[in-house]
DNA sequence: ATTTAGCACTCGATAGTGATGAGTGCTAAC
DNA sequence: GTTAGCACTCATCACTATCGAGTGCTAAAT
């Protein structure tokens, strides 16, 4: 059976009405609110076909129809009008980001807050993934006799520090020279490469001075270890409470299941780690994480210097206002990219 | 009317049963489960007195009694047995912290996660309050021609960096000298003092060299501004989903109200900012934040070097297992203090 | 002077009932 | 191919009756 254009109109009407009301949509409603020149009876016939094709479902006899995952998918891919963000929202985002200053992690956190506030769904965000960036500058600073501070600047502007404890008192001069040597040798490498590097390889051929070598063998392993610990990016979520306003979560058990997921960083990490560069919609059971089979996720990435460094997403029920959320996510990541370029201007 | 010891026993029984069951407690239950040698009728008389005194309440006629805030307060202050943490929990905390390495913020986040997992309530935590610590080391690093990195180490081991943009290309040597000058002048000051400091005061009398002065007037304001932005400490919360298991939040509206609060960092900040050094219990309407009038909060602080640098807390219903939570919070902050001392060993 | 048994009373919770109405599928007429 | 008509389904809601946990009071027992 083919999907004639009238069937598409009816499907679109059902989906949009359901997105607004969360109530099963009947043939009468479609006829009265959306397609006034088609009678309910005709629509009923078409709906029976749409159900057979798997685009809509009936919760029970004598109820209206509800879109299936497959229906939403068709809607998102072909039916939905590509809304451009409305001016009000656009200005709001613009303004919010204009005032933002400070560290990049804080910026991402703020973006996540903004995203949940504007969409009224839950948002998640991953701070820049350190390991994908490249070393731009490394500096060892002597804090006191037993502590060395390593400061790492990467090409995405992410800055990390770690304190390295040493038994021996290393002289400031020596430290500076080691800093320089390491810089020469390591700059340009990605953090991922760096932490997996063979230490002896770094050591060899740098300098034959025994003093330095001794210090290096002490400092270097600690440094790499510290890097490893900060490898996994921070994950933020926000606006979970929004979902409690939705009828799909009036059942406390459902709500609980959802909230439990938001508390599990490893699951959120799974969602965000391998995100396609363009805005992506994942609907219901399409999701690999089975606990999210009643949710849809919209994800996008943000980049600096053409390099993807992190991602951000919106979680909501499959009955999500896809066009609105997509437009907001797009606008937000665009602004994020702009401001990142500005902040980390080199 | 005085609170005889039998009344106390009955009150204690009512509270402990209510903590376990969340159901109003009747005279029969008290007699059967707790005070077998007193008849229900006698207990009824005593309960009438306890109600008159305001320690318990009746949701409606023909229901059992429920503790009031005042009742819980008496229980916490005088009736409750001071439980020492059970060995299993103790070992668990000990072990969790043993394996923890990395940045201090991450440690606090982990502590919060642990706290909610063990208590089955929601937890909140404030990362070290930067502003209360004192400057120990300041270093300016030249990243490239337009960016200077300021690294700040404080006496509590907290490390912050901020990138300062400059129009003019400052030479490495000059930067180092400025670093040294600033160090001499500023070390020992608290960050709070520092950000409120008059810039001209710092400038004056350092060095008459015009070159440096020029640089200083550019760098210093930016530095102080950057410090101001990171002044407010990060706040984490965890385990909110736990509360959805409790019958008091089977009403979605109540749950929503609670979750909304957890999303508002300024409210959490209010809760955590002025916390007494010893573990504190705040019950129901005792709380300044009226949205939390049905909640109890248990807060405690963690310190480094005898100086309180942050706080941590548990949020739950007034029907909270006070003795258990207190013992866990105490044990956890103790371990936190220990490990902080170890990590930031100077 | 307490304590306790007995009893009438209150009131929320639960289950059963019937009416209502939104929505369907089918049939026959347009 | 489209639509009006109609019998049928089934969730929802309001109403009612019943049940039982728990109370307060009174009078008897200790």
Strand residue content of chain A: 15-25%
Q: Unreliable segments of chain A (pLDDT under 50, ≥5 consecutive)?
A: none
Distance between the ends of chain A: 59 Å
The oligomeric status of these chains comes to homodimer
**Coarse morphology of chain A:** elongated
**Total strand segments of chain A:** 10
Protein name (chains A, B): Heat-inducible transcription repressor HrcA
Family (chains A, B): Belongs to the HrcA family.
Domain Heat-inducible transcription repressor HrcA C-terminal (chains A, B): 105-326
Keywords (chains A, B): Repressor, Stress response, Transcription, Transcription regulation
What report would you give on this structure?
Two copies of one chain form a homodimer. By secondary structure, chain A is α+β, with helices and mostly antiparallel strands. Chain A has three domains: 5-79, Arc Repressor Mutant, subunit A (Orthogonal Bundle), CATH 1.10.10; 87-128 and 234-345, Beta-Lactamase; 131-230, Enolase-like, domain 1, CATH 3.30.390.60. Chain A is built from 14 helices and ten strands. Chain A has helices at residues 5-21, 27-34, 40-52, 69-79, 87-98, 104-119, 172-186, 191-195, 199-203, 210-229, 240-243, 252-263, 265-273, 322-343, and strands at residues 56-57, 66-67, 122-126, 135-144, 147-154, 159-165, 235-238, 280-283, 295-304, 307-317. Chain A binds a DNA duplex (30 and 30 nucleotides) through helix 3.
């Amino acid at each position: 059976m083919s999907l004639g254009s009238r069937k598409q109109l009816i499907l679109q009407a059902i989906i949009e009405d359901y997105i607004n009301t969360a109530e099963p949509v009947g043939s009468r409603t479609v006829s009265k609110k959306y397609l006034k020149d088609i009678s309910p009876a005709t629509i009923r016939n078409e709906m029976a076909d749409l159900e057979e094709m798997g685009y809509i479902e009936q919760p029970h006899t004598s109820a209206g129809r509800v879109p299936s995952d497959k229906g939403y998918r068709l809607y998102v891919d072909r039916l939905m009008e590509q809304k451009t963000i409305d001016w009000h929202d656009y200005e709001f985002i613009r303004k919010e980001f204009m005032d933002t200053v400070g560290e990049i992690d804080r910026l991402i956190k703020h973006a996540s807050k903004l995203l949940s506030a504007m969409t009224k769904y839950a948002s998640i965000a991953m701070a820049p993934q350190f390991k994908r960036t490249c070393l731009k500058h490394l500096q060892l600073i002597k804090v006191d006799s037993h502590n060395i501070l390593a400061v790492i600047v990467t090409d995405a502007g992410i800055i990390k520090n770690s304190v390295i404890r040493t038994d021996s008192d290393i002289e400031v001069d020596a430290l500076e020279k080691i800093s320089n040597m390491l810089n020469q040798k390591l700059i340009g490498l990605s953090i991922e490469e760096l932490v997996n590097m063979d230490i002896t390889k770094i050591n060899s051929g740098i300098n034959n001075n025994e003093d330095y070598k001794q210090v290096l063998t002490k400092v270097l392993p600690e440094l790499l270890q510290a890097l490893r610990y900060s490898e996994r990016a921070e994950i933020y979520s926000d606006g979970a409470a929004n979902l409690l306003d939705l009828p799909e979560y009036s059942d406390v058990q459902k709500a609980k299941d959802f909230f439990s997921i938001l508390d599990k960083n490893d699951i959120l990490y799974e969602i965000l780690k391998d995100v396609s560069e363009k805005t992506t919609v994942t609907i219901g059971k399409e999701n690999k994480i089975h606990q999210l089979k009643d949710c849809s996720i919209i994800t996008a990435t943000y980049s600096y210097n053409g390099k993807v460094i992190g991602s951000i997403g919106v979680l909501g029920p499959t009955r999500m206002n896809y066009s609105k959320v997509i437009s907001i996510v797009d606008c937000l990541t665009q602004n994020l990219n702009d401001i990142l370029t500005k902040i980390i201007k080199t």
